[in-house]
Amino acid sequence: MPVSRYYDVKRDEKGERYLEPYVTGFLLLRLPLLNKGTAFTEEERRALGLEGLLPPHVNTLEEQKERVYRRYRLQTSPLEKHIYLRNLQDRNEVLFYALVVDHLEEMLPILYTPTVGEAVREFSHIYRYPRGFTASTKNIDHLEEALQNVPLEEVRLIVATDSSAILGIGDQGYGGMAISIGKLTLYTAAGGVGPDKTLPVELDVGTDREDLLKDPLYLGVRHRRLRGEEYFRFLDRFVEAVRRRYPKALIQWEDFAKETAFQVLERYRKVVPSFNDDIQGTGAVALAGVLSACRLKGERLSEQVVVVYGAGAGGIGVAWALLEGMKREGLSEEEAKARVLVLDSKGLLVEGRAMEDYKRPYAQRPERLQGWRFAGAYPNLLETIQNARATVLLGLSGQAGSFTEPVARAMLENTPSPVIFPLSNPTSATEALPDDLIYWTDGRALVAAGSPFPPVGFKGRVIPVGQGNNAFIFPGLGLGAVLSRAREVTDGMVLEAAYALYDYTREHFPHLLYPPVARLREVSPYVAARVMQRALEEGVAEGEVQGLSLEGLLEFVKSRFWEPRYLPYRPAPVI
Ligand SMILES: NC(=O)c1ccc[n+]([C@@H]2O[C@H](COP(=O)([O-])OP(=O)(O)OC[C@H]3O[C@@H](n4cnc5c(N)ncnc54)[C@H](O)[C@@H]3O)[C@@H](O)[C@H]2O)c1
Ligand SMILES: O=C(O)C[C@H](O)C(=O)O
Ligand SMILES: [Mn+2]
């Protein structure tokens, strides 16, 4: 079957790839996966009915990049830049990715965190072209038919959100589609997954935001969110329809509120290859960064006392991964648990306290608090840091400014170089600004943040701020799972992604907590290869990669890596 009902990719006599479009003329210029714009050659223009429809001069891809980059630079705000790039993506995908790959570090904050947060908020107001697939309460009863309308036959990667907890900005209704689009842009730009193998999905189950429901321009369904059984019936249908239409696809669950995130992950992880980016991707990226910090300090992870601030999808995922990391260094479950302290909005999680089920495994035994001094019913952040003598502090609370100067100074009381990662996104939700943390700790804190921040100048030093964002994990994890045809994404594969990122950083950037994002295109294939290796070891891989060594797997990944280049076009033979 062709890749798409509008084209196929074939090989010529010499084995070179070419594209065979099934549409010609003006329509060809309107399909972003096919359109080369002014780069169509004269021969192609003649053969494909494009003569007279384009300017006479034929551009190279390089020239086109030059043109669009100049316009890009003239956009006056991050959101305008985002809109500009998204329009380019919807016009000509090869050109879009060629440009993004050339300027990855510059454009990631525009296409992804933090600007994507604004794009989510404004989604209905900046909407132009359709992209992705919407499952909504309007089409859920005939979802299988609706999925047939997606003109791609080889979708392998789906990012799906119900928009209930986008970044740290909460329920965003239909706007969450922008997150699915942004995450998949990274899969292609950083993970080498062809854009025609990806499908962004919005699961529009409604919104509880009155302002959105009342906004005449709002584009989602206008009712409150489905809950309980109705909600899960909706999701069951979605998963079933995906399984039928795209049996080889992996689903990445994104930005589900904590009330459902854990249930959704568990309900489907053995039904369809899937993982939750906020729980597992974030857990892995935090573990990798804390391991790097320990290496820089010349200490072991199992010696640290970790405080995780925030007990939602991200916080619990991070607590899980750090606990696993400590156990790997030889601690018992009990020993590890006493070293990973988790707080929610009511304070430290302690057994016996009222809390949701997913938090229970991370609650401290009451004995752990023996001799502690605190004022309220449960220790707050500062009290926990002081009493437990925390050495690592990780923020996943979405509470801007919650890592105050006294908090940072308290960390410094416990260790000469505290590890402090305000991981909440977007920038407006960060627990602390990195330069504040560095000043408050006299340059001694090891700092990484979820959103991108410029390096901090301090007493003649230039201190880079690592970006502890699951962007370092999910493209490699998803790619590795798909390329190894993994039946499921196991916890072992998630943790392997963390150690792979740690190893990559140690080898290539031994003085940093995370690699620069400009290196994502190297990081992701390496993470993918390690994930594949682990999938093989665990016996969940079903693909053609059986028996390959790590080097072999890396070669395999690289041979599949999609590059933004124009293929020559040959018209379909007339039958
Ligand atoms: N850096 C990354 O890669 C990354 C990944 C995932 C999430 N995050 C960030 O983490 C934040 C939370 O995301 P999530 O998906 O876990 O959301 P969530 O809604 O699942 O959880 C938020 C949690 O924050 C905690 N919280 C709220 N108010 C608090 C308060 N006053 N004090 C202490 N804790 C409080 C609660 O425990 C709540 O469960 C967001 O800002 C998100 O951007 C970052
Ligand atoms: O989207 C990001 O930047 C990371 C993470 O998935 C989040 O929800 O904050
Ligand atoms: Mn997320």
Structural notes for this entry:
This protein has a seven-stranded mixed β-sheet, sandwiched between helices. The protein has 575 residues and is of the alpha/beta class. The chain has four domains: 7-59, Hemocyanin, N-terminal domain (Up-down Bundle); 62-272, Rossmann fold, CATH 3.40.50; 285-471, Rossmann fold (3-Layer(aba) Sandwich); 473-560, no CATH class. 42% of the residues lie in helices and 11% in strands. It contains 23 helices and 16 strands. The radius of gyration is 24 Å and the shape is globular. The protein has helices at 25-28, 42-47, 61-74, 78-89, 93-102, 104-111, 115-121, 123-126, 143-148, 177-189, 210-214, 228-245, 258-268, 277-297, 313-328, 333-339, 381-388, 405-414, 434-440, 474-483, 491-508, 520-537, 550-560; strands at 7-11, 17-21, 133-136, 157-161, 198-204, 250-254, 274-276, 306-309, 340-344, 347-348, 392-395, 419-422, 446-449, 456-458, 461-463, 466-467. Helix 3 (61-74) crosses helix 5 (93-102), helix 10 (177-189) packs across helix 20 (474-483) and helix 14 (277-297) crosses helix 15 (313-328). The protein binds nicotinamide-adenine-dinucleotide (NAD), (2S)-2-hydroxybutanedioic acid and manganese (II) ion. (2S)-2-hydroxybutanedioic acid is lined by residues 113, 167, 255, 277-278, 425, 450, 469-470. It holds the Pfam family malic. A divalent metal cation binds at residues 254-255, 278. Keywords: Metal-binding, NAD. Residues 89-269 form the Malic enzyme N-terminal domain. Belongs to the malic enzymes family.
